[in-house]
Structure formats: structure tokens, C-alpha cells
Design a protein that fits this description.
Blueprint: H1 2-19, H2 24-33, E1 36-39, H3 73-84, E2 92-96, H4 118-126, E3 131-134, H5 153-177, E4 181-185, E5 190-191, H6 198-212, E6 220-225, E7 236-237, H7 241-251, E8 254-258, H8 271-275, E9 282-286, H9 302-313, E10 320-324, H10 333-352, H11 356-364, H12 368-379, H13 383-393, H14 401-412
Parallel strand pairs: 1-2, 1-10, 2-3, 3-4, 4-6, 6-8, 8-9, 9-10
Antiparallel strand pairs: 5-7
Helix pairs in contact: 1-13, 2-10, 3-10, 5-6, 9-10, 11-12
Length: about 425
């Protein structure tokens, strides 16, 4: 009876959307093909599996001590699979280099090779999960304040070699899965207080990137990520948004837009149409910056909704990759995975259900009242019934039913850690 009501509600919604020129079946097809790259670091608070792992550094902070964090690779994989089972659609997994399967061996970051990720490649194939990747410049004795922009040649060369090896790993992943692995480069480099060598640091970072990207790779794609500032590095960021936007445009690289890395008054959504005129593709890292880069769990707030709406209005879904990037240790971590992923999907769904073609036509005809009216009316349309149908078709819990599933997994699994 419950499934019947969901289907009946969807049929009513389907008719209502058809009346404004929106085909919900086509929308569901597009939504089903849009893959979110789930971030592995939500499950264990960004610790990773290095034998020699140290404390978090480089402005990375995970707050909260909710019990049940993953302590090893098996527990992390278990958490991810549980979360995936509660999120409709087929999704990817985004790995940082520190999450390699090192099997108790000390492997420094300039020594890492694809062999330490072979079990991840096999796991991905077994679980229908494509992999993405990240180099890891933080939480290491050689991290300091500067990595790829370090004037110390020994330290800079260490991180150049690390990042080159990460590209080798990403290329191996992409080849094995028959789909390009998207590898993100983000470094925390900056200065805590007044500095006068800004040009030097940026010249060094540019040279490092030039060396890193010198070798073409067939099975991976590079993306680069900027930031306003980092905790402990508040006065200057080498890899600013201006720097990376210019570098990506000049070198035909994917630009990463992390919604937590902008000034609170900026609107990340506005960057979509601006930069897509100059770069081939975009990678999104979607989080919720309550107080700048605080990396709270993604919800359906205005900024996230507007972000996906801009992508749809720009007809750019085929040029945008979406990953999540939050790490909240203050709540059930699997629940955080599911809540954030479903929220991102709902924002995309609402954007796809918007009568965009009619609104564009009105705007070009100088009919601005009509645009505003449709914009407002779309908010009250029964999009929730469409998402419920999407969940039903994908055999995942509808509505808040996933809460009980997460609670059961906590009682049976994570509470025993």
C-alpha cells in the first residue's frame, strides 16, 4: 500500500510538471546518470591508513568525537557500502592518497605506487564503484606551511614527486575501470603573517605544477583547487582562486570549485558560467560552510540549490563532476554520508524540474514578471514526490526510512568499534 501511494503521488506530480513543459521521466533518467563522488574521509575524520600517520595539519580540522569512526580499511569500506545502499543511483568514491592499502608497511609519500591501491581497484570493480583520487600534502613532517611552493628544493622536489606518483595511481585506476579517474590537486601553502615573497611562492608553485603535468596521461583528468585562506595560514594563500583559475584556463585543466573555499559573501554558483567559458570542465566539492570552510554536512540550503541550478541553466551537466567534501565527527558518520548525498541529489532534481526553457524564453522577451513568477511557483511544485519515486525505482528507503537503517547499522556495527 505504501509503495502504491508513492507511485500515485508521482503520477500526479508527473501530470503537474507536464503542464509546465517538464518531462519527469527524462528528468529521472538524467538524475540516474549523474554520479556523486563520495569522499572517503568522512568515515574516519581524515586520518587515513599510513603506518606513520601524524596529527592533522595544513588547516585540516575534523571536530567531534561521535563513537564509531572507521579504524581501518575494512571498516571504512563497510561504512561506504552501507551509505551507498541508502543513496539512490550509482556513485563514485573519492580517495586521498593517505588511504592506500599499505598493509602495515611504512611507505613515504614520494614512494607510493599503484600497487598500494590495487585492492581499491579490485574493490571498486566488485562493488560497481568508479574511483577518483587526490594527492595529500597535509599531515606530514614535510608539510609545514609550504609544499609545492617551498623555496627549499629538497622539500619541493619531495612534493613534486609525490604528486607525480599520485597521477600514476590515478591513471592506473582510470585504465582499470575504463573511465577517467579525476585527480584533484590541492595544497595548503600559505603564510600565517605578513610576507613579502608572494611572487616567488607563486612562481615556484607554477613551476611545480608545470613539472607535475608535463607527462600526458590517457586515463585520468587533472583538476586544481584554490582557497581563500587556511587555518594557521590566514595572511596569504599561494594557490588562490585567481592563481588556479588563470592556470586552469591557460593549461586546459579542470578547475575545482569547493563551496567552502570562498569568502562568505561570495556566491560559488556564479562561478559556473564565468569559468566554463575558459576551462574544459569543472569539479565541484560540495559542503556547507557555516562559518567559512567549516565543512558541515551538505543540506538543501540556498547556496547548494543555486549551484546546481546554475549548472542546469548553463546546460553544463556533461562538463561538471560532483564530489562531496565535508567531515563531521560530531554525528553518525554514515548518516552524514547519506543525508549529504541525498541533499545534493535533491538540489539537482529540483533544478532539472525547473521550467528552464520557458523561463529563458520569457527573459529574452523582456517578460521579467513572468520569470519571477515561474521561479517562485517552481518552489512549491511536488518535486518531493518525484524524488520518492526515484528512491523507489532504485530500491532504497523512501523518505526518512533510511534513518532506521543507519541506526540499525550503528547498533550492529559501528557501536562495537
Amino acid at each position: 500500500m505504501k509503495d502504491l501511494k508513492i507511485t500515485q503521488a508521482y503520477e500526479i506530480a508527473k501530470e503537474r510538471y507536464a503542464a509546465i513543459g517538464v518531462d519527469t521521466e527524462k528528468v529521472l533518467d538524467v538524475l540516474g546518470k549523474f554520479q556523486i563522488s563520495m569522499h572517503c574521509w568522512q568515515s574516519d575524520d581524515v586520518h587515513g591508513f599510513e603506518v606513520q600517520a601524524g596529527a592533522l595539519s595544513g588547516g585540516i580540522q575534523s571536530t567531534g568525537n561521535y563513537p564509531g569512526a572507521a579504524r581501518n580499511i575494512d571498516e571504512l569500506r563497510s561504512d561506504i557500502l552501507k551509505a551507498k545502499s541508502l543513496i539512490p543511483g550509482t556513485h563514485r568514491l573519492n580517495l586521498h592518497e593517505i588511504y592506500g592499502d599499505f598493509k602495515g608497511k611504512v611507505v613515504d609519500r614520494d614512494e607510493v605506487t599503484p600497487e598500494y591501491f590495487q585492492s581499491w581497484i579490485e574493490w571498486g570493480k566488485e562493488n560497481n564503484t568508479k574511483l577518483d583520487f587526490n594527492s595529500t600534502s597535509f599531515s606530514h613532517p614535510k608539510s609545514g606551511n609550504l609544499s609545492l611552493a617551498n623555496p627549499d628544493k629538497g622539500i619541493r622536489d619531495f612534493w613534486i614527486e609525490h604528486t607525480k606518483r599520485c597521477r600514476d595511481i590515478a591513471d592506473a585506476m582510470g585504465k582499470a575501470q575504463g573511465d577517467p579517474c579525476i585527480m584533484n590537486v590541492w595544497v595548503h601553502d600559505g603564510c600565517k603573517d605578513v610576507s613579502v615573497n608572494h611572487m616567488l611562492y607563486r612562481q615556484l608553485l607554477k613551476d611545480s605544477l608545470d613539472q607535475i603535468f608535463a607527462e600526458e596521461k590517457k586515463n585520468m583528468k587533472d583538476c586544481i583547487e584554490g582557497k581563500v585562506f587556511g587555518i594557521g595560514l590566514e595572511s596569504f594563500t599561494v594557490g588562490s582562486h585567481d592563481f588556479y583559475t588563470a592556470y586552469a584556463a591557460k593549461n586546459n585543466k579542470i578547475l575545482t570549485i569547493d563551496t567552502g573555499h570562498y569568502h562568505p559573501a561570495e556566491i560559488p554558483a556564479d562561478k559556473i558560467s564565468a569559468v566554463l567559458n575558459f576551462v574544459p570542465e569543472l569539479m565541484l566539492h560540495v559542503s556547507r560552510p557555516v562559518r567559512w570552510d567549516s565543512d558541515h554536512v551538505t543540506i538543501m540550503d540556498d547556496n547548494t540549490q543555486e549551484l546546481f541550478s546554475e549548472i542546469v541553466r548553463a546546460d553544463a551537466l556533461d562538463r561538471v563532476h560532483c564530489g562531496l567534501d565535508y567531515f563531521d565527527g560530531a554525528m553518525n558518520r554514515v548518516g552524514a554520508y547519506v543525508t549529504g548525498s541525498r541533499a545534493a541529489q535533491k538540489c539537482l532534481l529540483r533544478s532539472l524540474l525547473e521550467p528552464t526553457a520557458q523561463m529563458k524564453e520569457y527573459e529574452l522577451a523582456d517578460k521579467h514578471f513572468e520569470v519571477l513568477a515561474l521561479f517562485e511557483e517552481a518552489k512549491a511544485m511536488p518535486w518531493g514526490a518525484v524524488y520518492d519515486e526515484f528512491c523507489l525505482r532504485n530500491n532504497v528507503p523512501v523518505g526518512d526510512a533510511f534513518i532506521a537503517e543507519v541506526q540499525k547499522y550503528e547498533a550492529d556495527v559501528t557501536s562495537h568499534r
